TrEMBL record:
One of its GO terms (biological process) is cellular response to phosphate starvation. This is Plastocyanin-like domain-containing protein. GO terms for cellular component: endoplasmic reticulum membrane. It comes from Leersia perrieri. It comes from the Eukaryota. Transmembrane segments: none annotated.
Length: 590
């Protein structure tokens, strides 16, 4: 190692040690100690560690139209999308990495997979096909409740995140299947899913959801974007379109020197990588014109939060978050993204004072109180925009798009009926003793996924959920089918007393919840005031969210039966937590 590398090694080692020290570590390998090997392997490998930034152009994933036009009207079609093992170059100077990817064929599969563009109210049928090999490319932990097929193979099942669809098409963790449907999970019923696309227009994504494998299968590459368009709403907004409407799918990864993706064999509470990829490339660059661009920023990391800014201070005009537009655009200079969170923004590069603009990240990890701070040389940067020289008579530069004055009328909390039920949802973590057969993990309300359902909302109603975080981390709450919006975030007083009481009694009444829910109120950020699919739940607070089990755009019940088997789930979207097992069943009633 050269002196500069050695210096950086020391910094990195220090950072990793701090991460380990920052967490309670009741057992030796509950932490990040093994990650030192990976850090070292990266340091020893000049090609990986000395990766030059901004040498790969930002790719755009292929767009697949999820409808046909027949006599001028959109109509349903069926797509076939497969899952393939291939290799992918994450950087010009890295060896090819074995990955799992979605694609319409082996040749066209990409990391992330193709973006599906569906049309509002036009159902789309997708046949999901598993072409994966007999064994996973990444290790999984048998101490975590995991889908295990009789005949080998990689269990998969696809969940359309944010989708409003009946339970049989939700991609239940128990509805998995292996190659050619050879083995199938207990809730498996069909090969082809029907997505009704009845909800408001916005940004969704699809990803794997097989029991106990979500964190490794997404890490391996089974994730992609999905859009529901509704021209009646979107055309009048006059947003940037076509080549100026881009997805940025951000994901952090850690690699071995041979290019393979690194993850601990044993389940760890959070996966962090120091290499930031956007659309499958490490620290890419994008050449842009001096004009407005629409950027749909999706955080597809396992556990990393991002706090992004542009290096020259250019603002983001936020027009939507997750799968809904806002009431009106909100202008901010930084965005905090949790895992699985989406911000839909417009950036006006014509106002740039510089020709190169870096997208920076400053979120500590684990978020928000972890002692690890992103390294400006590594995870402190995301990508770079490079402004193209102006050419004469270049039509492409003419910009008729705008930041609309108004968004949609249904984004506000009061656009839906008042709640009919109030629930308390408590997030815990437990530390298994060294000799336990189960690993350390997390859970909700003292219960596990396989325990009987306790959340049974009535389809067509809204509810208030008070979500209490008894852990040290921020957890992004994700509810299948329903859509949610934070109402209030209030800090808890005497947190230690309340936490130890809850750990003992697991009962908010006996633990005098009301007497602790009296701290200061933290405002809900303006850019998150719309119907979301993940709401960040900060530590030491009770976050009250309104959950709508209806179509918020029309205030009508779902035009399908949402009460069938196998039901839905709600969970934390830190994938490592979801797998083990911050996840509970959700069953709608008529
Ligand atoms: C890369 O190295 C790791 C660690 O030694 C190993 O587990 C993995 O199988 C290797 N990958 C390939 C493609 O050889
Ligand atoms: C995000 O970054 C901005 C700008 O650097 C800073 O003001 C803000 O406090 C950060 N937010 C969080 C939650 O870290
Ligand atoms: C991205 O999403 C993952 C989960 O999917 C989450 O753990 C992570 O914190 C998010 N990161 C950002 C930058 O939003
Ligand atoms: C496991 O460890 C606990 C304490 O850590 C101890 O009380 C228990 O006896 C151990 N069990 C076995 C089977 O060794
Ligand atoms: C926690 O409380 C729930 C609901 O009151 C109960 O069903 C569950 O068994 C309790 N769990 C533990 C570990 O005490
Ligand atoms: C109830 C509660 O506040 N639990 C934890 C939330 O997170 C903080 C860390 O920021 C812990 O100190 C609390 O115990
Ligand atoms: Cu979590």
């Amino acid at each position: 190692m050269g002196p500069r590398i050695q210096q950086l090694a020391a910094v990195l080692l220090a950072a990793a040690v701090v991460v380990a020290a920052a967490r309670d570590e009741p057992r030796k390998n509950y932490g990040f100690d093994h990650s030192l090997d990976a850090v070292m392997s990266i340091l020893n490998c000049k090609t990986t560690f000395d990766l030059q930034k901004y040498v790969d152009a930002l790719p755009q994933m292929a767009k697949i139209q999820g409808y046909a036009i027949w006599h001028g009207r959109p109509r349903s079609i069926q797509l076939t999308i497969g899952m393939y093992q291939k290799t992918w170059k994450f950087h010009r100077d890295m060896p090819p990495t074995p990955v799992f990817m979605y694609g319409q064929s082996r040749e066209t599969a990409t990391f992330p997979g193709p973006t599906i563009v569906a049309r509002h109210n036009v159902p789309l049928y997708v046949k999901w096909k598993n072409h994966l090999p007999d064994t996973h490319i990444l290790p999984w932990d048998p101490k975590v409740d995991t889908a295990i097929p009789k005949h080998g193979g990689v269990p998969t099942v696809v969940h359309l995140h944010s989708g409003a669809h009946p339970p049989e098409y939700d991609g239940s963790a128990f509805a998995w299947f292996t190659r050619d449907f050879r083995d199938r999970g207990p809730a498996w019923t069909r090969t082809t899913y029907r997505y009704p696309n009845v909800q408001a227009p916005g940004n969704l994504w699809y990803h794997d959801h097989a029991l106990g494998l979500t964190r490794v299968s997404l890490l391996a590459g089974l994730l992609a974007a999905y859009v529901i368009e509704k021209p009646e709403i979107e055309t009048p907004m006059n947003l940037p379109r076509g080549a100026h409407d881009l997805f940025l799918v951000i994901a952090d990864r850690k690699f071995y020197t041979n290019g393979s993706i690194y993850i601990e064999k044993e389940w760890q509470p959070e996966y962090f990588g120091e290499i930031i990829t956007v659309n499958g490339k490490a620290w890419p660059f994008l050449a842009v014109h001096r004009r407005r661009y629409r950027l749909r920023i999706l955080n597809a990391s396992n556990a990393r939060y991002f706090n992004i800014t542009l290096s020259n201070g250019l603002p983001f005009h936020v027009i939507g978050s997750d799968s809904s537009y806002l009431s009106k655009p909100v202008t901010v200079t930084n965005l905090v993204l949790s895992p699985a969170e989406i911000f839909d923004v417009i950036v006006d590069f014509s106002l740039s004072s510089t020709t190169g603009i870096e997208m920076l990240n400053s979120a500590r990890y684990p978020f928000p109180n972890g002692d690890a701070v992103p390294d400006p040389k590594l995870d402190g940067t995301v990508m770079k925009f490079v402004i193209k020289r102006k050419r004469k008579l270049d039509d492409d530069i003419l910009d008729n798009s705008e930041v609309p004055e108004h968004g949609v009328s249904y984004a506000s909390l009061t656009s839906v009926p008042p709640p009919v039920v109030m629930r308390k949802i408590t997030m815990y973590e437990y530390f298994a003793p060294n000799n336990a057969t189960k690993t350390t993990g997390l859970y909700i309300n003292g219960l596990q996924l396989r325990d009987p359902v306790t959340e049974t909302p009535k389809s067509g109603t809204t509810e208030l959920w008070q979500v209490i975080n008894l852990t040290g981390d921020n957890h992004p709450l994700h509810i299948h089918l329903g859509t949610l919006q934070a109402v209030k975030m209030q800090e808890l007083s005497n947190v230690q007393t309340f936490t130890s009481c809850m750990v003992k009694l697991n009962d908010t009444v006996k633990c005098n919840f009301d007497q602790h829910a009296n701290g200061i109120t933290v405002p809900v950020p303006e850019e998150e005031k719309t119907w979301k699919n993940v709401v960040k739940i900060p530590p030491g607070t009770v976050t009250t969210v309104k959950v709508a089990f209806l179509l918020v755009e029309s205030n009508r019940p779902y035009p399908f039966d949402a009460t069938t088997e196998p039901g839905f789930v709600y969970h934390c979207h830190i994938l490592d937590h979801e797998d083990n097992a911050m996840i509970r069943p959700l069953k709608l009633l008529r």
